[in-house]
Design a protein that fits this description.
alpha+beta; Jelly Rolls
Length: about 210
């Protein structure tokens, strides 16, 4: 058995989070928003996972019911291509997007505390986001503070066009959007080889819009 002599403060466990800004965001934003408005049936989900009419608008259940990734998957994937190449350098196995959905909130709508499962990586991309009135995602530590026993919170500073990657098991939420200005994000889960994923949509159905 190998014994190590420790000197000073060491961090025994690490919860990673990475943030990137999408290049040429001014070009991608209108293309992505046009796909969201034209390609999905709006459904509502509550923080407990039940259907609701007062929490948020999302195509999450539509996509999973059909077993297909949304039409805007290709546009988002194209916008993220240089970022995914860089992010892959920090992940030990090949990653692929296994599902994707958007969330839109306004007038007090929110998304309560939840996680995306025990393994893999998730991401939230801020598509229509005004940092002067909208709040970023809040993350919660998976273990309590060892000094006071309290759960620690972390809210990254983000701007529109940013994407934040985090371990899927980390609990997080979106506080109520009290403004009348819509807040839109696209979320996605990544998994390694061998894990299931929704089918990719038929590329011919995609409306690419102006480049």
């Amino acid at each position: 058995m190998l014994l190590l002599t420790l000197n000073g403060l060491l961090k025994m466990f690490l919860v990673p989070i990475e943030s990137f800004h999408i290049p040429d965001w001014e070009k991608w934003k209108p293309r992505i928003l046009s796909e969201l408005k034209g390609g999905s049936t709006l459904a509502t989900i509550s923080s407990s996972g039940r259907t609701s009419f007062d929490d948020m608008e999302s195509d999450f259940y539509d996509n999973n019911k059909r077993g297909v990734l949304p039409d805007y998957y290709y546009v988002v994937k194209e916008a993220l291509e240089p970022i995914l190449d860089e992010f892959q350098e920090d992940y030990p196995i090949p990653l692929r997007i296994i599902n994707m959905w958007y969330q839109a909130t306004r007038s007090g709508k929110m998304h309560g505390v939840h996680n995306h499962g025990p393994i893999g990586v998730s991401a939230v991309m801020y598509v229509d986001f005004d940092p002067t009135i909208h709040k970023p995602t809040t993350f919660y530590s998976p273990f309590p503070d060892y000094i006071n026993g309290e759960v620690q919170e972390f809210t990254p500073e983000v701007k529109e066009g940013d994407i934040v990657f985090f371990p899927s098991f980390v609990h997080h939420c979106q506080d109520p959007n009290e403004s009348d200005k819509q807040r839109v994000v696209v979320s996605m889960n990544f998994a390694g080889k061998g894990q299931g994923m929704l089918r990719e949509p038929e590329p011919l159905t995609i409306s690419r819009g102006p480049v």
